[in-house]
Every structure is written in structure tokens, then in C-alpha cells.
């Protein structure tokens, strides 16, 4: 929004006294009411700015020399969480009254608007003026050109460039979305429009899955439908720098009257030229069973973020929106949106005392973890019977995972943190000696509780090096139903859980950093951990892992003292929150100041591209000076012809004699970098600089040789060797060229870590992976005093093995954890979970995974 209440030009004598009463209620720091005057020729000068909440009477005296001037109140909002999109809850961004304008001769005008009809936009010399409209460019179009070989779509889609004056150079025959009507950085009209669906009847459905609602949902099912999900596909060629983004809205239409447009408060971009499928839970945004509408929009955010987030220099025809579907689903109990702010891995607060406390923190500016849940059908989240406040809880287990001497597990009231705000409380509820339950409280902004968002903090003066803190959440609604997040966590404390580690653990001198790690385990980590297990002897295979977007506590001294090898996976996008790239400087200091040999392994799609785009001195020092690498192309697929020229999607990489690291007996190693569908991966093309050597090569194309990995050896300030390896691809895309064990990924990890002088196994051949899940008959059977139970895991996953008596009661939990694929054995000593011996008789043991379940009988004889 950019709206004003403005006078026509008026003449005056001498100075002007300008007074008014103004009430304002807008998003602090982002939405503003400005009071301005025209100093001539449309050169508006500000007299005052108001943001946030307040009620004021103000007087300004203007001493100006021109014969005539104008006055105005101007309200502007940014692109999100404002009065414009209805997400900032106010009765109006600004309300003005009792406006007086007087010069040295007389009262020019006074307006209290009492005689002005409701709905008027003019009174006296004052006129309400919205900013000039931009135009309408949205509509439907088929046969669209795209650059996604995995998702060709020639059907009709929603676009936002119809009538645009900008022919597209990169999409022949199409047009780019229109630019703002003004030069860059000038607050000019910019595109911000959306396409709105017809009203959707939430009591009916489409049997043909189209726009015709020809079926009626049975009444018995309607009462159980508490969830709703919006699904769609979008083609994104929306580089961040362009500041062209898309968004979605939903709204209820109760009684024929549309409600406010609601969404998740985000606008979306994506530089990858691909179609992506999106799922968005909208259960809490629409009324239960009320008709709804859906909207998709395109916004050019240049007016708000020029030279702050991008330069707006280029556009494309995207976004394209298609396959929009709305689903309803059955729910019971509190429903979770997940954890928006999580506790992160951290280091001691004192760099000189490794046993000093480690804070339970997360991203900068947040001291609490935040989780979101609500219960539409259960009457909302219940209150805690003892303390009041929400019946939302965090369950915490703090155990030591480091080497001897062991530290005791932590449990009890001491785990509960403090918010520092008397209105927000994190109350200790209970513990069983292992798991501690702490009450969460509502997230508050300016004192007001946010709906369905809850926060909690843990004690910042309790945890020390080597502790692993696992946690999950539970909530209870007013119908008395309780659920947990993650969903499986509440089933007899079945992991994996959310977690953070207190580093360094000191089992290993290797630090593995994956900034985009998931809450529990992720695809990339599963590839790395299996390689660590094969390549590194225990306990070195238990490498320290840091995952999260930021790390604010670690110092270069801590890195120097405890790590000889650092592996950094994925993009460096997260390494700078303020443009200074603090993490890069930490790596530089670690390499230069280490009092021992050290090795740095960097790998990931767009890692080199991100460093090059940053262009900062630390970024270029890391890439060029230490890693001996430069970026040739951001995509091997594009360098070899892209979609139009049959670009190479999954190149076969070969070891280069130049570095010789992946060459054995004169024969080069070979393996694939998989770049295929559903998304084409952008593998960085590299070249050596300074003392760099090419370690891996992409296939030669058009007579040109392309580097896939660069190795370099340097000497630091203390005279110690520093070895670096830079991969232009992520390890999760590494594939074997032949199906022989050990797999190529194990060979690659072994070669690099051995070259970096880490301790590695001589034999890295893994045990044969079972072809199916299996539960064997225990042996011996009958037994006394113990028996062994063998079981096979076909894939990595959560597995449980439990003993039950003939009445179906749980006797003993033998296994309840995530296991890698492989063959295992567990013993039962005839004792229950309390440690007491069980009576003679028949028992049953049951194995459960996500995809397999089996039960067998055993006999205990005393």
C-alpha cells in the first residue's frame, strides 16, 4: 500500500503552522505514516514518521519561501505482515483528525470531518489519494516455454506477464513480467496482483478431481475433517536478485461474506529453473466447513528491497502456477506445524574453558525454541491444570555421549530455563530420572500472545561438553486428546528425536558441518555416516556434527584446539547473515592458526558459486588462496548445452593424475555425479589457481576439459601443512559406476581423509546388506538364562524389538532406535524393564519398522 491524504496546492503568507491529531497502529519498523510537505516540483520533505502504536497531537511550523505548497499524510506498508495483507491486526493503520493549517495572516483550513458523509474521499482542501495503479498482467496461457527437462508442461497455467511490454530474451516467444514504473530504488508502482478462485464448497468434493464439485461428503465424515491442505505446482525461474516472487492466500467466505486473506507470512522465490510441487497445510487459516477461496499472486518487491536484497535488474516470465488442489483430511487431537525455531548445536561460552557452560540457543536473536500447534476439532489447546497456560510441553533427555570420564545424565527441575519476561513461564512438570517434562508458554509479541505458537527455553548454565540433548513436544486439547511431535516420539519414547549436541564431544577430531540438516537425520547425513562407519575406526567414526543455519558461539581457538579435519557440506548461503561471512573467517583462522596439520573438505552444489557471488575478501581468500580453485561455470549441465543442447545431466567423474588422490596403480577412480530428475542439479565447474591441483574431472565436452574437484596444499603461519579439497557437487549425488563393494562413496571418503592424514581403516569393505527385513527364531529356545535374537534391516530406519507376555502386556523393550541397513543380534536375559527376572512360561517377541512387522514365540524355563 502507498496511500495518502493530501491537499491541493494552496498559497500562504509567511510561515505555516500545521497541527493534527494522529492515532497509528502498524507493524513497527516496516509500515509507516509520514507527514510531508511539497518543497516544490514534487520534492516531498518529511516532517515526521510514525510506526508501531501510538496516539499523538503534533504541531509543525514550516518556514518556506515558495508561493504555494501541498501537505499530505502518507501511509506505506511493506510486502508482508501489514494492514495491506491483513496479517497485522489493527483497526486501521492510521487515523487522523482535527487537522489545522494556519499561516501568518489567517486560518487556511480546519477539518474535523464531522460534516463529511461516511465514505467520502474529500473534505475541504483534503483529498484521499491511492497511489497510481500498475495494471493487470495476470491470466491463463498454454504452450509455455520452460527450462525443466523433468517437468515439461504445455497445458494451461496461470501467468503474470500477459500484456507485458518486455519480450523475453531467454524464453523465445514469451514476455518477462513487467518492471516497476520507475527507475530502480524509486518508490514507484510495481506489480502486485493475484488470481482468485471461485468459492469452494467445503462440504462437497470433485470425483473427477477437477473444478466440478459433483459429490457430497458424508455427514459422518464432515465432523472428522479438521485438516485442510493446499497443493500446487509452480515453475520457478525467480533469482533472488530479481526480487520477483510469488505468494498464496486463502480466506473463508462465511455467510457469503469474504473474510481476510490469510497465509503463512512468506513470499517465495527460487533460482532453479524447475517445476516444484508444494504442499501447504492451511487448517488453521480457514473456518471449519465454511466455503473458501484461494488466491495466487506475483509481486515485484523492488519498491521495498532495492539494493537491500537485490538490484531488480532482470525478470523472467515466471512464476507459472498450475494443478491447484484443496484437500480436507481427518484429524484427532492437536495438529502440528512443526518447530520454526530449534535449539542448535553449540560450543562452550568460554573459549578458554572447555568445561564451561553451553547455552541452549538457536539462531541469533532467539533464546527460545518455538513450536506451532493447534486443535480445530478439539476446541483448541487446553490449559495446564497446575500452572494455567497452555498444555504444551517439551520432553527432554540429556545424556553424555563423550569418552571417559563419564558424566551423569541430567534430569529434573534444573533443566527448565527462564524467559527473562515475567509474563512468560517455562514450568517444570515432572521427570522419571531420564526424561524431564517442561511446560511451554505462548509466544508473545508486544505483550500479545500469538495464536498456536509456543516457546520454551532450557537452562543456559547446566549443559557442558559431551552432552546430547534429545527432545520432543506433546500437547493436549480441550477434548482431552494428546499428540506428540514428532508423531512417533510419544510411542514409548521412540526416536529419533529433535536434538542438539554440546561440542566438542571429543570422540573424534573430525567436525562435520551440514548447515541444512533436518531435525532428526537427513539424506546427506545418512550418506556421510555410513561412510564414516566404514572408513574410520571407533570411536573416530563418531564425528562431531554441527547442523543448523548459524553458529554464534564457536571460536577459532576452539576449532584449533579440537579439530584436525573439518568437512563442510552444501552451500555457503547460510554463512553470512550480515554480509561479513563470519563462518568463512572462522575457517580461515582455523587453518592459519592451527598448531598441527589440518584438512578442510568443502563440497556441495553452488558452494563455489556462492563464494564467487559474495565476492568478499574472506570468501575469495578461502576459494582461491587456500583451496586453489576458481569458478568456471555454475552448472555443468548448462556448460554442456542445457536442455536445448542436450546437456549432460549425470557426468561420469574420473580421478585426475594432476593431484593423484583418486588414482590407484595408475588407474583413475570413476563414479557418477547424479543430476537427474526430479530436479536437475547444478554442479559447479571448477579450475585450479595458484597451488591448486585438479583432483576430479568432468567428461570433456566440445574439446574443453572441466574440473569437478580441486585439491591444494598450503603451509599455515605456524609452519604446519594444510590440505584442502573442494568438490563442485554434493556427496549425496555420488553414485557407483559399477555395482561392486565397497561402494565408491566409501572409497572417496577414505582417499580424502587418508590424504588429510586422518586415521582410517585398512579394510573398508562393508558387511553384505540384507535384501529384506527379517526376524529370526531366537536361539536357544527354550532358554535359561539368556537367548539371542537375530534380525535384519534392509534399509536405515527406526526399529523396535519388544517382549510381551501371553496377556499382551509389555515386558521388556530390547531395541528402540534407528539402525543402519545390516544384520544385528540382541540378547534377552529374562528380565523385565524394571530389572527383575520374569517367571517361566511362554513369551512373544515382536519386531516393528515403518515397513515391516513380525512376531515370534519363545519359552523361558527356570
- How would you sum up the major sheet? 10 strands, mixed
Q: Show unreliable segments.
A: 572-580
The tally of strands reads 54
Supply the helix-strand structural class: mainly beta
Mean pLDDT: 88
Helix content: under 10%
**Roughly what fraction of the amino acids lie in strands?**
35-45%
Q: Number of helix segments?
A: 9
Shape: globular
Description of the molecule:
- The protein is 9% helix and 38% strand.
- It is mainly β and 862 residues long.
- The strands form 14 sheets. Strands 35-34-36-37-46-45-44-39-42-47 form a 10-stranded mixed beta sheet, sandwiched between helices. Strands 5-4-8-1-12-11 form a 6-stranded antiparallel beta sheet, with no helix packed on it.
Describe the structure concisely for a colleague:
This protein has about 850 residues and is mainly β.
Topology, pairings included?
Layout: E1 2-7, E2 10-11, E3 16-25, E4 32-38, E5 44-50, E6 53-62, E7 68-69, E8 71-76, E9 94-103, E10 107-111, E11 122-123, E12 126-130, E13 139-141, E14 157-159, E15 192-196, E16 204-205, E17 215-216, H1 219-222, E18 225-238, E19 244-254, E20 257-258, E21 270-281, E22 292-300, H2 302-305, E23 320-330, E24 335-341, E25 369-374, E26 392-400, E27 428-431, E28 435-439, E29 441-445, E30 448-456, E31 467-476, E32 482-485, E33 498-501, E34 510-513, H3 523-535, E35 544-546, H4 556-562, E36 565-569, H5 582-593, E37 598-603, H6 607-614, H7 617-626, E38 629-633, H8 636-639, E39 652-655, E40 663-664, E41 667-668, E42 670-673, E43 685-688, E44 692-701, E45 704-715, E46 721-727, E47 734-736, H9 744-755, E48 774-775, E49 787-793, E50 797-805, E51 810-819, E52 822-828, E53 841-848, E54 853-860
Helix pairs in contact: 3-9, 4-5, 5-7, 6-7
Amino acid at each position: 500500500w502507498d496511500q495518502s491524504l493530501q491537499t491541493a496546492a494552496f498559497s500562504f503568507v509567511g510561515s505555516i503552522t500545521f497541527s493534527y491529531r494522529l492515532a497509528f497502529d502498524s507493524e513497527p519498523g516496516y509500515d509507516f505514516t509520514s507527514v510531508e510537505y511539497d518543497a516544490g516540483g514534487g520534492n516531498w520533505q518529511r516532517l515526521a514518521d510514525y510506526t508501531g502504536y501510538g496516539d499523538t497531537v503534533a504541531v509543525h511550523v514550516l518556514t518556506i519561501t515558495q508561493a504555494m505548497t501541498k501537505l499530505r499524510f502518507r501511509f506505506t506498508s511493506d510486502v508482508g505482515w501489514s494492514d495491506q495483507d491483513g496479517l497485522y491486526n489493527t483497526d486501521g493503520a492510521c487515523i487522523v483528525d482535527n487537522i489545522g493549517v494556519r499561516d501568518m495572516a489567517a486560518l487556511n483550513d480546519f477539518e474535523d470531518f464531522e460534516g463529511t458523509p461516511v465514505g467520502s474521499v474529500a473534505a475541504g482542501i483534503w483529498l484521499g489519494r491511492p497511489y497510481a495503479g500498475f495494471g493487470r498482467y495476470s491470466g491463463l496461457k498454454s504452450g509455455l516455454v520452460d527450462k525443466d527437462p523433468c517437468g515439461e508442461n504445455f497445458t494451461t497455467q496461470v501467468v503474470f506477464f500477459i500484456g507485458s511490454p518486455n519480450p523475453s530474451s531467454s524464453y523465445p516467444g514469451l514476455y518477462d513480467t513487467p518492471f516497476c514504473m520507475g527507475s530502480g530504488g524509486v518508490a514507484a508502482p510495481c506489480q502486485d496482483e493475484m488470481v482468485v478462485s471461485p468459492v469452494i464448497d467445503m462440504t462437497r468434493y470433485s470425483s473427477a478431481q477437477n473444478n466440478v464439485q459433483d459429490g457430497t461428503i458424508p455427514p459422518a465424515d464432515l465432523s472428522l475433517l479438521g485438516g485442510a491442505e493446499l497443493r500446487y505446482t509452480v515453475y520457478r525461474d525467480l533469482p533472488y536478485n530479481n526480487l520477483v516472487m510469488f505468494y498464496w492466500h486463502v480466506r473463508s467466505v462465511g455467510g457469503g461474506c469474504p473474510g481476510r486473506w490469510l497465509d503463512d507470512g512468506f513470499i517465495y522465490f527460487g533460482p532453479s529453473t524447475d517445476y516444484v510441487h508444494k504442499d501447504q497445510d492451511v487448517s488453521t487459516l480457514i473456518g471449519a466447513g465454511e466455503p473458501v477461496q484461494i488466491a495466487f499472486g506475483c509481486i515485484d518487491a523492488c519498491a521495498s528491497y532495492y539494493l537491500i536484497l537485490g538490484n531488480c535488474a532482470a525478470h523472467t516470465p515466471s512464476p507459472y502456477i498450475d494443478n491447484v488442489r484443496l484437500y480436507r483430511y481427518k484429524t484427532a487431537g492437536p495438529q502440528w506445524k512443526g518447530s520454526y525455531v530449534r535449539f542448535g548445536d553449540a560450543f562452550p561460552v568460554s573459549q578458554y574453558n572447555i568445561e564451561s557452560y553451553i547455552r541452549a540457543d538457536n539462531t541469533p536473536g532467539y533464546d527460545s525454541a518455538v513450536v506451532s500447534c493447534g486443535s480445530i476439532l478439539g476446541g483448541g489447546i487446553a490449559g495446564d491444570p497446575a500452572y494455567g497456560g497452555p498444555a504444551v510441553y517439551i520432553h527432554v533427555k540429556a545424556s553424555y555421549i563423550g569418552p571417559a570420564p563419564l558424566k551423569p545424565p541430567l534430569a529434573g527441575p534444573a533443566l527448565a530455563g527462564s524467559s527473562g519476561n515475567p509474563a512468560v513461564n517455562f514450568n517444570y512438570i515432572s521427570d522419571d530420572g531420564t526424561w524431564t517434562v517442561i511446560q511451554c508458554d505462548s509466544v508473545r509479541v508486544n505483550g500479545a500472545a500469538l495464536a498456536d505458537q509456543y516457546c520454551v527455553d532450557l537452562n543456559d548454565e547446566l549443559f557442558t561438553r559431551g552432552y546430547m540433548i534429545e527432545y520432543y513436544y506433546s500437547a493436549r486439547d480441550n477434548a482431552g486428546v494428546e499428540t506428540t511431535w514428532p508423531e512417533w516420539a510419544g510411542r514409548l519414547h521412540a526416536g529419533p528425536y529433535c536434538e542438539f549436541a554440546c561440542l566438542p564431544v571429543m570422540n573424534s577430531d573430525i567436525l562435520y558441518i551440514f548447515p541444512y540438516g533436518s531435525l532428526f537425520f537427513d539424506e546427506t547425513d545418512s550418506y556421510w555416516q555410513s561412510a564414516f562407519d566404514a572408513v574410520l575406526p571407533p570411536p573416530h567414526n563418531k564425528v562431531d556434527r554441527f547442523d543448523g543455519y548459524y553458529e554464534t558461539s564457536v571460536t577459532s581457538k576452539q576449532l584449533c584446539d579440537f579439530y584436525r579435519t573439518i568437512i563442510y557440506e552444501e552451500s555457503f548461503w547460510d554463512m553470512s547473515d550480515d554480509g561479513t561471512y563470519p563462518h568463512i573467517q572462522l575457517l580461515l583462522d582455523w587453518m592459519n592458526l592451527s598448531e598441527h596439520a589440518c584438512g578442510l573438505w568443502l563440497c556441495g552444489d553452488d558452494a563455489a558459486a556462492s563464494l564467487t557471488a559474495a565476492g568478499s575478501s574472506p570468501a575469495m581468500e578461502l576459494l582461491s588462496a587456500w583451496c586453489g580453485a576458481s569458478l568456471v561455470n555454475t552448472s555443468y549441465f548448462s556448460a554442456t548445452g542445457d536442455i536445448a543442447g542436450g546437456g549432460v545431466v549425470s557426468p561420469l567423474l574420473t580421478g585426475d593424475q594432476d593431484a593423484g588422490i583418486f588414482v590407484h596403480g595408475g588407474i583413475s577412480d570413476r563414479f557418477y555425479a547424479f543430476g537427474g530428475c526430479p530436479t536437475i542439479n547444478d554442479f559447479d565447474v571448477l579450475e585450479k589457481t595458484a597451488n591448486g591441483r585438479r583432483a576430479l574431472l568432468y567428461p570433456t565436452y566440445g574439446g574443453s576439459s572441466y574440473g569437478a574437484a580441486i585439491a591444494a596444499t598450503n603451509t599455515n603461519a605456524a609452519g604446519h601443512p594444510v590440505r584442502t579439497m573442494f568438490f563442485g557437487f554434493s556427496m549425496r549425488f555420488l553414485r557407483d559406476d559399477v555395482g561392486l563393494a565397497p561402494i565408491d562413496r566409501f572409497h572417496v571418503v577414505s582417499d580424502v581423509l587418508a590424504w588429510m592424514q586422518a586415521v582410517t581403516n585398512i579394510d573398508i569393505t562393508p558387511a553384505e546388506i540384507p535384501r529384506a527385513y527379517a526376524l529370526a527364531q531366537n536361539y536357544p529356545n527354550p532358554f535359561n538364562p539368556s537367548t539371542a535374537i537375530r534380525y535384519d534391516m534392509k534399509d536405515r530406519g527406526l526399529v523396535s524389538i519388544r517382549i510381551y507376555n501371553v496377556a499382551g502386556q509389555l515386558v521388556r523393550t530390547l531395541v528402540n532406535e534407528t539402525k543402519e541397513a545390516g544384520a544385528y543380534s540382541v540378547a534377552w536375559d529374562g528380565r523385565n524393564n524394571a530389572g527383575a527376572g520374569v517367571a517361566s512360561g511362554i513369551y512373544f517377541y515382536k519386531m516393528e519398522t515403518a515397513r515391516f512387522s513380525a512376531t515370534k514365540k519363545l519359552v523361558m524355563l527356570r
